Amino acid sequence: MKATFSFARKALVVAVAAGICGSASAAVTDRVYFSAAPLVLVWGTDASGNPAVVSDFVLVNTASGTAGTDLTAASVIPVITGSMTAVPTAPSGNSLFAVTNPAAAPAGGGVLTDAGTAGQLDAADTYTAFGLGATTGLGFAAAPQSHSFYVASNSAFDIFAQAGAAAYTGNFSGANVPLTAISWAMSISAAATTDSGVSWGGAAAQDPTTGGTGVIAATNLSSFAAATKVFDGGRRTAAAAGTILAQSVRFSVQYGLNYDLSMGSGSVSVPVTYTVYTP
Hints:
The chain has one helix at residues 2-22; strands at residues 39-44, 53-59, 69-70, 79-80, 97-100, 112-113, 126-127, 137-140, 145-153, 158-163, 167-170, 182-189, 193-195, 198-200, 214-215, 219-220, 228-232, 249-257, 266-269, 272-277. It is mainly beta and 279 residues long.
């Protein structure tokens, strides 16, 4: 009995020793993970007139050639280029007229002083008397309407445009003022600029055209009866570390109407929707 006990005790000691020498050390494997989705931020003003408001937070990870996913319920309200003044959602008032090619005499003829509501023809405005020559005419103010929105992105993106139905008043109609009569052109700026106290662009921003074909050639609103690509991008707007404003570029769109007295009096209003697409 004594011999049997001693053998069992020795076997137990050997087993314990073997267990200690062969045990695995404790280990914890952690995982660190970050992933930046391709993102496009579009900003302008909002319905309350607040400047520099991002109202489109768009993920461009949908199928190529389809609209990105906008995570905000609001929509950007574009501004009058060079300002933070919202483009009216319900335009009113009359456009300024411009006298073209007045005769040499009297000197200084046809000069407009826009003394009333800026950009609108009203009773407070004045014109100097002007002489008529062989090519003297009257049209809308020489500079086309220029409206802007701003974009900051970490990825390439495209922009599509679609014109809605035109609304006419007075003598204006689809017959004498068709969409083909309203010109369209787009431009991009990344240079450091201040618009009504809001500074954007500069060294941290870059033209997103490189790698893509950029903005399409100037055309007219009839080109946008269906959603049409107007900008083909190839890279992000953010060129270096910085704030969203510093990494932003400005897209400006110029609209023009070659007015003639034969068109009569009236107005035309056309909504144009710009949508960010996945390239």
